[in-house]
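Q: I'm writing up a methods section and want to include an example of the input and output format. Could you take the sequence below and give the corresponding predicted structure tokens, formatted cleanly so I can copy it straight into the document?
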Amino acid sequence: MSSFLEKNPATLDLGEEEAKVYAFLNREGEASAMVIADKCFIPFSRIHKVLYRLQQQELIVSRGDVPKLYSLRFKDPQMSSKHE
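A: Here is the clean output for your methods example:
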């Protein structure tokens, strides 16, 4: 997990699955729902609900159609430096 999320979980109001997806997208950049579900160990049957909640909070954006790709709206530099 990231330093920002560890220090400020209430700020983003993220659940465990949302935090996993947020951290994954910050690290990887962009991915499809299937890849996100696989890498974050979230059942594919739930991943779209998680992604929808993150989109509603305007933390992620999607582009394309098939497959739709998801990425962070703004990258967290504190998280990036920790993984480099």
